[in-house]
Amino acid sequence: MNDDHVYLSLTEGDAGGDARWAFGTGFEDPLHGVDTTVPDGVDRDALAAYCLALGDDALISSQRLAEWCTRAPELEEEVALANIGLDLLGQARLLLSRAGQAEGAGRDEDALAYFRDPADFRNVRLAELPNGDFAFSITRLLVLSSWRLALFARLTSAADPVLAAVAAKAVKELAYHREYAAQWALRLGDGTEESRARMVRAFAEIAPWLAELSAAEAGFGVEPGATAQDVAAVLASVAAETGLTVPEATPVPGSGRDGEHTEHLAPLLAELQSVARAHPEATW
Amino acid sequence: MSKDWPLFEIFIRGRRGLNHVHVGSLRAPDEQMALMHARDLYTRRNEGVSIWAVRSDAIAASTPDEKDPYFAPSGDKVYRHPTFYQIPDDVPHI
Fold first, then answer.
1. Which of A113, A116, A189, B38 is close enough to B10 for a disulfide, judged by CB 3.0 to 4.6 Å?
2. DSSP H or E segment with residue A215
C-alpha cells in the first residue's frame, strides 16, 4: 500500500490502465453501440420536438443549479448542486443533439442551446423560476427530479433507440437527484421553525406549476398524466414524515411547451448565451 | 452553519481495491448526508465503489506528544525484521 498519496492506493492492482482515473478513464459512453439513425416509423418532427423539450428542461434546470455556485449555504452543498446541474447538462447535450439530428436542418447542440430566443424554448416554466431560497430550490428539485425520473423510466422502452439510451443513463442520475432533494426536504421540513416555515412557503409557491408537468410529458409511449401517481407518491412519503403537503392551487394558464414563458427566462438565457453570441464560432 | 456540523472522516474502496482508504474529511449534519456529500466530493471521477463515513470524534488517535514512547522504541530493533534467514536458492517467491 502506498501511503504517500491516498488516491494512488485506490488504484493499486489496477494494471489494466484504468489507474489513470484522474485523467478521466473508465467512463462509459451512454450511446456506445446505439444506432443513431432515426428508425423507420418514427416521426422525425415529433422526435425532434420531444427531445428538444426534454433537453430544454434539463438545460434550464442546469443553469439554475449552476447559479448556486459561490452562493450555497455550505461548500458541500455547492458541490452537490453543481454535480446535479452537470448531470442535467449532460442530458441536455444528448437530447439537444438528438433533436438536431431528427430535425435534419443542420443544427447541433450548441446552435440549439445558444442561438434560440426565449419564445423558441420549450422547457416547463417551473424550471425557469428564480432559485429563491434553499428551501424553494430543494422543493423544485424534488418535484422536477421525481417527475423526470418517472417519465424517463417509461422512456427506456421508447421507439427511438437514442432516446431510450439517454433515458436509461438518466434514470440512475435522477434517482440520486431525487434522493438528495428528498433527504433535504425531510431535514428542512422537520428541522427548525424557520426551516419549516420556508418549506411550507416553498410548497405553496410550487403548487400552481404542477399541472403543467403532467400535461407536458405525452409522447413516445407516455400517456399524459402517466407520471402523476409516481410524483404524488414521492410527495406523500415526504408528507408522511414531515406533514408538508402541496396545497390546492389554481394552475397558471399556458405551458412552456407551447413557448409561453415567465419574465424570468429571458435574463437567464441572456447570461447563458452571451459568450457564445459575442464570439460565434469560437472554440475552447 | 459549518461550525454546527460535525466533522466526518471519509474512506473509499476503489473499484479493484480490497480495503477502504482514508481520502479526506468533510462536514455534514448526520451520517446519511455525510455519505451523500462524500459521494459528491470524493467519487466524482469514478474512484470508488464503496464509502465509509465515520464521525471524526469517534476515532481514537495517538497524539504527536506520544510519538517517542509509541514509535521510537521500535527504531533500533532490527531483529524484528526477518532478514537474517538464509534463503535456499530453489525457494521461489520470497
1. B38
2. helix A210-215
Nearest to A13 among B16, B29, B36 (CB): B16
- Nearest CB among A6, A26, A83 relative to B46 is that of A26
Q: Which segment of A7-11, A153-157, A159-163, A180-184 scores lowest on mean pLDDT?
A: A7-11
Let me know if A126 is exposed, middle or buried by CB neighbors in 10 A (0-12, 13-18, 19+): buried
The answer to whether residue A138 scores a pLDDT higher than 90 is yes
Looking at CATH, the fold of the domain delimited by A43-243 is given as: Ferritin (1.20.1260)
Per-residue pLDDT at B38? 94
Q: Could you give the domains of chain B?
A: 2-61 (3.10.20.520)
Whether residue A15 contacts residue B31, with contact meaning beta carbons closer than 8 Å, is answered with no
**A109 has pLDDT over 60:** yes
Q: At what angle do helices B31-42 and A75-103 cross, to 10 degrees?
A: 50
Inform me whether the C-beta atom of residue B12 falls under 8 Å from chain A C-beta atoms: yes
Residue B27 reports pLDDT greater than 50 = yes
C-alpha cell at A140: 423544485
Helix or strand (DSSP H, E) at A280: none
Q: Which residues of A touch B (CB under 8 A)?
A: 1, 6-7, 9-14, 18, 21-22, 24-27, 73-76, 79-80, 83, 176, 179-180, 183, 187
Amino acid at B48: G
* Partners of residue B36 in chain A, C-beta under 8 Å: 80, 179-180, 183
pLDDT in tens, A218-265: 888 888 888 989 999 999 999 899 999 999 999 999 999 999 999 999
Q: What is the structure's pLDDT at A221?
A: 81
**ipTM score assigned to the predicted complex:** 0.72
